[in-house]
């Protein structure tokens, strides 16, 4: 069975059908359950569908090799791309709890929405604790949904085993990466200064680069029957591009326009994110200035004036310029992996378009 002509529209339709089934089932469990499931369905809406797009383009890159003609993306690839979007929604819900974020895409983060609902309905107990607990469960439900949709979608695929292996590895690595991201906010005190850039890149690799781009590409490629050489080319493109993507995200987390990103400017500074940008800033500062930087980063009460001062300190240290150089180099490394690779020509062009979109962006 082939999908509609626009693969991303097909992904959206698949998500709508799946979440409608879940909402229908929850209707028999009472108003609270129905509202909870509706929150999960809402979490899946919106976004750039970046992971789905890389998954589908990875499928095309393999499926179209040797033929030269665009192929209609199959239903199993559509389902896998949709499952990635649900898993991403779960990761965002849990990420916002860990970071104590108030907003996501310009709206209240899930735990804040649950907290507000608790207060509005005048329920007993602590609203903040309820909001966090409910959001943890919401993220767990979304993880379960992502598995359900993947299994349902690839059940008849002759490449189901390969797809499961990619998906399972992605889940393990991003969870470890999320922990390492959390750990770095405390471990920097004892980690050698000279090792902090390497440690920040390790987090970027596991938490984002593999999960956001490399594994979606490999998942799509696996469902199209990728050879070892084709999978290596997709990895060679996807991993460095994923690093460039995360480094751009780190820059936006410090310097991004809140009207575009949907999060307060400098939010990563308030959250204490120990990114490559911060590691390089520390390397470029004198010991006294480095101590001031360490004291301020992670303070949730930082005001706009303090954020602006930290932003200027990071620029003056040379850290922003160094990270921008990394972004350009990683993007070039990824592009180099596509040259002469046994992949469909049209899909390679789409991969290059996606690479520009992932690294040259404002949100």
Task: Give structural notes.
- There is one protein chain.
- The chain has a single domain (7-359), classed as Farnesyl Diphosphate Synthase (Orthogonal Bundle).
- Strands 1-2 form a two-stranded antiparallel ribbon.
- The protein is mostly helical and 363 residues long.
- 75% of the residues lie in helices and 1% in strands.
- The chain contains 16 helices and two strands.
- The model has no long low-confidence stretch (mean pLDDT 94).
- Helix 3 packs antiparallel against helix 16 (345-359), helix 8 (196-223) packs antiparallel against helix 12 (276-283) and helix 15 packs antiparallel against helix 16 (345-359).
- The chain has helices at 7-26, 31-44, 50-63, 75-99, 110-120, 127-154, 160-187, 196-223, 228-255, 258-261, 267-271, 276-283, 287-296, 304-316, 319-338, 345-359, and strands spanning 103-104, 107-108.
Structural class category: mainly alpha
Q: What string gives the helices and strands in order? A: HHHHEEHHHHHHHHHHHH
Quaternary structure type: single chain
Strand order of the largest sheet: 1-2
């Amino acid at each position: 069975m082939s999908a509609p002509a626009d693969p991303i529209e097909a992904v959206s339709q698949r998500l709508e059908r799946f979440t409608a089934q879940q909402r229908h089932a929850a209707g028999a469990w009472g108003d609270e359950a129905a509202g909870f499931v509706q929150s999960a369905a809402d979490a899946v809406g919106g976004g750039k569908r970046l992971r789905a797009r890389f998954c589908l383009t990875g499928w095309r890159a393999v499926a179209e090799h040797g033929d030269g003609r665009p192929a209609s993306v199959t239903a199993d690839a559509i389902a896998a791309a949709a499952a990635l979007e649900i898993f991403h929604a779960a990761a965002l819900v849990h990420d916002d709890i860990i970071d104590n974020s108030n907003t996501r895409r310009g709206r209240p983060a899930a735990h804040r929405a649950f907290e507000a609902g608790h207060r509005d309905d005048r329920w007993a107990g602590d609203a903040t604790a309820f909001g966090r607990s409910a959001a943890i469960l919401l993220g767990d439900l979304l993880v379960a949904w992502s598995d359900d949709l993947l299994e349902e979608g690839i059940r008849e695929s002759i490449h189901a085993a390969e797809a499961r292996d990619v998906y399972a590895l992605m889940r393990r690595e991003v969870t470890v990466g999320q922990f390492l991201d959390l750990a770095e906010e405390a471990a920097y005190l004892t980690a050698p200064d000279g090792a902090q850039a390497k440690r920040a890149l390790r987090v970027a690799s596991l938490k984002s680069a593999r999960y956001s781009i490399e594994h979606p590409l490999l998942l799509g490629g696996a469902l199209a029957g990728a050879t070892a050489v084709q999978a290596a080319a997709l990895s060679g493109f996807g991993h460095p591009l994923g690093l460039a993507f995360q480094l751009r995200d780190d820059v936006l987390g410090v310097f991004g326009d809140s009207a575009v990103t949907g999060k307060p400017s400098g939010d990563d500074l308030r959250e204490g994110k120990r990114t490559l940008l911060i590691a390089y800033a520390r390397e470029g500062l004198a010991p006294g200035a480095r101590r001031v930087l360490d004291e301020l980063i992670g303070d949730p009460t930082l005001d706009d004036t303090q954020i602006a001062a930290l932003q200027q300190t990071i620029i003056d240290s040379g850290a922003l310029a160094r990270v921008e150089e990394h972004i350009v180099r990683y993007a070039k490394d990824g592009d180099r992996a596509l040259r002469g690779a046994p992949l469909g020509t049209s899909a390679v062009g789409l991969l290059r378009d996606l690479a520009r979109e992932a690294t040259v962006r404002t949100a």
